Amino acid sequence: MTQVDNWIEAAFSTGGLVGHMSYVLLVVSMLMRDISYLRLFVIASALVGIAYDLFWLRNPVGVMWESVLLLVNVVQLYLLWRSDRAARFSEEEADFVARRLKGVSRGRARQFLDLGRWEVVPAGTALTRQGERPEFLTYLGSGQAVVEADGRPVARLEAGSYVGEMALIGDDVASATVRLAVPSRVWRVEGAKIDRLCNDHPAISNALRAGIADDMRTKIMAGNAGAQGGSAPV
Fold first, then answer.
1. Which of 64, 65, 76, 147 is least buried, going by the fewest C-beta atoms within 10 A?
2. 48, 21 contact by CB (below 8 A)
3. How much is the pTM?
């Protein structure tokens, strides 16, 4: 039997299949968008890897490092669980999370909301200005805003809408001016914090982008319903 035949036989033996499963689980973990599921798959991979190193390879070094990997992810999963348990939301925050942060853990959502602040902003305040990069990403918790292009009103935004999202996420300037039509309750966060968030926290960044995409679909559908009552992404 040649060396290649020996390799093939070892690769598809019971022990070899167990070793393959450890790596398959690790690869699957990299496909998870939810950090909790990612860590669960890494833990499963480490457990299978420990069994493979211990019973088939008799490799104490592998057992040690797989155990370290297991311990780190168990601790991190516990910290996520504790953060989720401790997270508390007001009614308006819970509505925000349900609308625009779907799939984000409670702890991560709390972390994101704490980056910004809730304010009551008077009517007539410009949330974005056409041709300028917005200073804030704004979420319209209650109230109404008017979208103006070249000084003319072209649409309106209702509660639950983002303002300035396209310019901030795309690192561009606002395509329209958005002014509050009535005194409104808003949550807003500085653009610089959004930039850091997108770089440092991919899970929150992905959820934010998904929420923005959902918001855009809502605005486009409202715009298609009629020019008078329509909305537009800004």
1. 64
2. yes
3. 0.72
Of the candidates 116, 149, 138, which has an alpha carbon nearest to the alpha carbon of residue 215?
A: 138
Beta strands in the chain (DSSP E): 117-121, 126-128, 136-142, 144-149, 152-158, 162-163, 177-180, 184-190
Q: Which of 233, 94, 234, 231 is nearest to 158 (CA)?
A: 231
For 56-103, what is each residue's pLDDT tens digit? 999 999 999 999 999 999 999 999 899 899 999 999 999 999 988 887
Residue closest to 148 by CA, chosen among 112, 174, 118: 174
CB 97 within 8 A of CB 104: yes
Backbone phi, psi, residue 210, to 5°: -65, -40
The answer on pLDDT for 230 being more than 60 is: no
DSSP string spanning 146-180? EEEETTEEEEEEETT-EESHHHHHTT---SSEEEE
Spans of all domains in the chain: 3-86, 91-224
Please give the full DSSP string across 74-100, using - where no structure is assigned: HHHHHHHHHHHHH----HHHHHHHHHH
Q: How far apart are CA 211 and CA 18, in angstroms?
A: 40
Class of domain 91-224: mainly beta
Whether 2 has a pLDDT exceeding 80, the answer reads no
